[in-house]
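Re: weekly structure request thread

Next one in the queue (352 aa):
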Amino acid sequence: MKGFAMLGIGKAGWIEKEDPVAGPFDAICRPLALSPCTSDIHTVFEGALGERTDMILGHEAVGEVVEIGSEVKDFKPGDRVVVPAITPDWRSLEAQAGFAQHSGGMLAGWKYSNFKDGSMAELFHVNDADMNLALLPEGMSLESAVMLTDMVTTGFHGAENANIQFGDTVVVVGIGPVGLMAVAGAKLRGAGRIFAVGSRPLCVEAAKFYGATDIINYRDGDIVEQISELMGGKGVDAVIIAGGNPEVVAQAVKMTKPGGHISNVNYHGQGETLPIPRVEWGSGMAHKNIQGGLTPGGRLRMEKLVSLVEHNRLDPSKLVTHVFNGLQYAEKALLLMKDKPKDLIKPVVLVE
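Done, posted below.
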């Protein structure tokens, strides 16, 4: 089969590989829709995960089942399915402990384009298919469905880990596609005032659509000072980090009030450490809770997100700004994510 792969750090291109093989609990799918991710850019062009050679990229896909293993009970060839970016091993101690996304080791539930070939290929493998696939409902667009696999679930996980309560004041730093879904998730969880930090006009308009009440442009000055002024010197209840360099962690600590929550879903792909300012963290005793989380994966998560779209609670299609037809455009879509032109939020490649 043909696939678009990381050839080495800083290099990507098309390769030929053997077709994947399904084990008894697994499935083989062909992609119907794909979307590249900024994490692919960190992986390929920054070497954030270390060297990877001839590893097929892509972890955001909607597909059609073409083969199932002998023990797969709930899916059959021809089913159209949503495939989460995170496909844990559900028969693991980590899953029983409530952290399936780390099954087999830290971040090991993130398999595609990390430990195994991803979905930017003519065929791709899904482990533990009954637990890692969700049926695509009739009438749901491929563009919306593929946004659920990573962008929606990751942004929502940022809101979950921020422990947002009714009426809370929340800051979302970074309003790319994950940040936009963090805004949407914060609104759905009952946030009152939502500050969205970003500068690109297209993303600003989308942030307002998804529920932002205030826009903070980091080009206009220090975001901590801007938000402090608007808050009358008080801290906010929660900060969701969905973008930015390592300094954003320090800014989040400074903005958050004692007892508040800092939730990181940003992929920090460079540097050895992340800064925590001692004084603003109360010398370590301010009850400012800092949590970073890889989004949950699996079937139930996808089915619940599908329900939000089906019942008009969420419209993820607003994230999609570029649509290409044909697997051959996977490379162009990936490079768009690298270059991030002003008119881009997310590209989608349709393979039907």
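The longest strand covers residues 256-264. Residues 142-161 form the longest helix (20 residues).
Next request, please.
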